[in-house]
Amino acid sequence: MNSGDRWLLIVIFAFRLAVILLPNTILQSDPDAYLRLAKELATTGVYGSVDPQGIPQPTAFRPPLYPAFLAATILLTSAPSVWLIGTVHAALATISAALLLKIGRSLKIKYTFLAVLLFSLDPLLIRQSQLIMTETIATTMAVITWWLCSLRCDESNQHLAAKPDQPKTTYSVTLQLLMGIAFGLATLTRPTAIVWLLMIILHHIVQP
């Protein structure tokens, strides 16, 4: 990335952190019980809730990746921290923006800079990042998966053009492994990621 890209990402991080921390509403509500699950995970080691007898009961009520992130922040600070959770949300949004830059540049999209700027100013993403909700991390996992898929496509095209009969390289196998991990983590954030995986598998089956 050039210096302009780096400055853009710094501004995006600062902006997203400011819009999260200044309203100071990130821990005011927990409509989907992610914070409650995170607290129980951090204190009892069980992903679930405590029954009236005080016994932790496991649950599959919500996908576990986001509560696990929240539990990690609680373990670091001994209590839910607006600053730490806000910083994690802002960092995830910045990672998404950085990878969108890379994807846009690899696809030779002319207005990549503008697309990333509009993405970072999206009102829905900004609002959800101010709440204990999965949209921020789910978006990041989707972009990471997209980026890995784009790298895999580029590598596959180069391989076919240069040495179509040669076995797969270590780089190719590693990319496929990372794609699988990314899809797995995305599914643990939002199960709808399974649909993307099935569509990509179908694409590889039917492509010439």
Mind explaining what this structure looks like?
This protein is mainly α and 208 residues long. 70% of the residues lie in helices and 3% in strands. It is built from nine helices and two strands, in the order ααββααααααα. It has helices at 3-21, 34-44, 65-77, 82-106, 112-120, 123-129, 135-162, 170-189, 193-206, and strands at 48-50, 56-58. It has a two-stranded antiparallel sheet with strand order 1-2. The longest helix is centred in the C-terminal third of the chain and has 28 residues, at 135-162.
Could you name the key traits of this structure?
single chain; 208 residues; mainly alpha; two-stranded antiparallel sheet; 9 helices; 70% helix
Distance between the termini: 34 Å
Helix % is over 70%
Overall shape: it is globular
Question: How large is the share of residues in beta strands?
Answer: under 5%
Helix/strand order: HHEEHHHHHHH
Number of strands: 2
How does the helix and strand content classify structurally?
mainly alpha
- Describe the main β-sheet briefly: 2 strands, antiparallel
Radius of gyration: 20 Å
Please, what is the average pLDDT? 87
The total of helices stands at 9
Strand order of the largest sheet: 1-2
User: Would you identify the regions where 5 or more consecutive residues have pLDDT less than 50?
Assistant: none
